[in-house]
Every structure is written in structure tokens, then in C-alpha cells.
Amino acid sequence: MAALRQLELVRESLADSKAEDIVHIDIAGKSALGDHMVVASGRSNRHVSAMCDHLIRDLKNAGFGAPQVEGLEAGDWVLIDAGDVIIHVFRPEIRDFYNIEKMWQTPDIDGEKLH
Predict the structure, then answer these.
(1) What angle, 0 to 180 degrees and rounded to 10, lies between the N-to-C axes of helices 45-61 and 2-16?
(2) How far is residue 47's CA from residue 64's CA, in Å, rounded to a whole number?
(3) Is 45 exposed, middle or buried (0-12, 13-18, 19+ CB in 10 A)?
(4) Sheet containing 68-70: which strands, arranged edge to edge?
(5) Is the pLDDT of residue 26 over 50?
(6) In whole angstroms, what is the distance from residue 43 CA to residue 31 CA?
(7) pTM of the full predicted structure?
(8) Multiple choice CATH, 2-113, 3.30.460.10, 3.10.20.740, 3.40.50.720, 3.30.450.20
């Protein structure tokens, strides 16, 4: 239940920050990392960093604690480990290069686009 609340907060925060191409991948039972993965894009390094700052603040304010964060300074690819939800925020060309969604999706289960 808490994981779903956290997932909804992540989705709303990213949408409020004008994230692009937000995708949810259910990784429950596939990984010990968490239950959900969210992948999104920002238009520039500055946009990626600002979205992630906003999301980190929203997670803390909602009582989910301080997530582990990597890549915030560069703003190319930011990884936010919020426990039950793992968030990857990329610049579009970096996202295309790593294609992380393909790595986690199975042929019969596609990522769910969040709007």
C-alpha cells in the first residue's frame, strides 16, 4: 500500500515538473531493488536536476525519508532510490542510448505510460 502511495507521489511530482515520456515498470518479484521503476525524461541537464530536486523534496515532505540519489550534479542521468520506487530521470539522448526500459521489460509485459 505504501509503495502505491509512493508511486503516485512520484508520478504527480514528475508531471508537475513537466517531465516527458513518464513510464512505469512493475518490477515486484523481478528484483530485490524495489517494487516499481519509473523512467522519465527532462529537456536539459538543468530541467532534469530541477525535476529531481522537486521530487526529492516531495518525497521528504510526504514522510518517505531522504532517498539515495546519484548523478544530480551532472543532470544527464539521475537515479533516485526511494526504497519501493526506483526513479531514473534522463536527458532524452542519454535515455535513448541506455534504453533502460527495454532491459527491464519482459516480452509479455510492457511498461505502462503514466499521464
Answers:
(1) 140
(2) 23
(3) middle
(4) 68-70, 77-81, 85-90, 36-41, 20-26, 112-113
(5) yes
(6) 29
(7) 0.88
(8) 3.30.460.10
- The pLDDT, as a whole number, for residue 109 is 46
What residue type is assigned to position 54 of the chain? H
- Contact indicator for 58, 67 with CB cutoff of 8 Å: no
Average pLDDT, the chain: 89
In the chain, how long is the greatest CA-to-CA distance? 37
Q: Which residues contact 24 (CB under 8 A, 6 or more apart)?
A: 7, 11, 36, 37, 38, 111, 112, 113, 114
Distance separating alpha carbons of residues 50 and 15, to the nearest angstrom = 13
Domain ranges of the chain: 2-113
CA 12 centroid distance within chain: 11
Residue from 23, 90, 83, 89 nearest 59 by CA: 83
